[in-house]
Amino acid sequence: MTSLIRNSRRYLAVLAAGAVLAACGGSSKTASPGAKGQEPPKVPMATSVGDGEGTLNIVVWAGYAENGANDPKVDWVHPFEKQTGCKVNAKVGNTSDEMVQLMKTGQYDGVSASGDATLRLIYGGDAAPVNTSLVSNYATVSSFLKNGNWNSVGGQMYGIPHGWGANLLMWNPTKVTGALDSWAAVFGDSGKYQGKVTAYDSPIYIADAALYLMATQPSLGIKDPYALTSAQLDAAVTLLKQQKANVGEYWADYTKEVQAFESGTSVVGTTWQVIANTINADGKTKVQTVLPKEGATGWSDTWMISSKAKHPNCMYQWMNYIVSPQANAEVAEYFGEAPAQTLACQHTSDKAFCDTYHALDAAYAAKIHYWTTPQKQCVDNSGKDDCTDYAQWVDKWQQIKS
To answer: Would you say the C-alpha torsion 376, 378, 383, 386 has a positive or negative sign?
Structure first.
């Protein structure tokens, strides 16, 4: 059993401040760039890594840069500092919108960005391309996390993959009959559980509805849940407005979903594996999860270096260190996600951890549509520029929730 589950209540309190659970929960209207043919601003890429500058300032999700302050036994920052001489100053970001704004200040060397922030940083000129040949541990990072629409442009990586996971369907089998295998449970059939459906509270959740429509209404022509025309976006919004009538509550802080399932106010909805593990470990309520037949959305976090980094050598050393087998295993277990580093599975304290999180399962990972910032220039590699951008998604989400 992982340290996260052993200390779930304490750790959940820590995560209430943010982490990937709030990755897309912001509401600022940062426009998504990407007119047809637009390339990211030209930002120099490092050609070598020298001695550390003695300091590293990074923006992180809570739980990604632990130094023993929350738990003396959980500390991978001090070993890095001892190894490199780079003193780590970590600023917790509560949402991706907040992280984007912090990175724009130029005060930070890097960030652990989720897919709804990465392209904004790249096209905004706030992130530099990463020379992966300077990051030795990159070679054994899972190949399915490399060169994604969310962390690269034109075959150029803009970061180092860190950890990932799927947005799963979860239900209480004592309240929901039968084994579920489709997102229909929270969309088309949600009326069966009126008032007890839960959904993720974020504009990026629109992609979940689009994914369901992609499978069930092919006439809409949706090919990528993050590349939606105005008509396709409206179809997803209509579905989410219909769903709202049956939603008891929306969650972004996952303590809220844990409490809702344990109290019985929610019986079915979208979730993460770590939430299900936490509920089942408490022993009060047992839940089941599945990656539905339509596939799922999910996240893949990326360490990115600022285009204005004052300590680039320390940042490159950190990116290499944090995806080293031992460090990546520690972060993944503590946080509750699949490690990006394939060799990390040899170092987890729970030997079944990587199986539970499907860390090395490329076929499982292929069913996930990782969070990607919606842009006017469609992110489906079609070359079209008739898609809706993130700002439009934010507006639509506010309409859904109003």
So the answer is: negative
Compare 12 and 253 and report the one with higher pLDDT. 253
Phi-psi region at 178: left, alpha or beta (left = phi > 0; alpha = psi -120 to 50): left
DSSP at 145: G
What letter represents residue 287's amino acid?
A: V
Q: Which amino acid is at 258?
A: V
Residue 75: phi and psi, rounded to 5, are -155, 105
Q: Does the 3-165+299-370 domain belong in CATH 3.40.50.300?
A: no
DSSP states of 172-193: -TTTS-S---SGGGTTTTGGGG
16 and 365 in contact (C-beta within 8 Å)? no
Structure tokens at 3: 């340290």
- Take residue 227 and report the two structure tokens written for it: 């590349």
Q: What is the pTM of this model?
A: 0.87
- Domain covering 167-297+380-396, topology: D-Maltodextrin-Binding Protein; domain 2 (3.40.190)
- Cα distance between residue 211 and residue 207, in whole Å: 6
Span 178-236, pLDDT tens digits: 899 999 999 999 999 999 999 999 999 999 999 999 999 999 999 999 999 999 999 99
Residue that has been written with the tokens 């590349």 in this structure: 227
Cβ-based burial of 189 (10 A; exposed 0-12, middle 13-18, buried ≥19): middle
Residue recorded with tokens 């579905």:
239
- Give one DSSP letter per residue of 258-297, joined into a string: HHHHHHTS--EEEE-HHHHHHHHHHSS---EEE--TT-EE
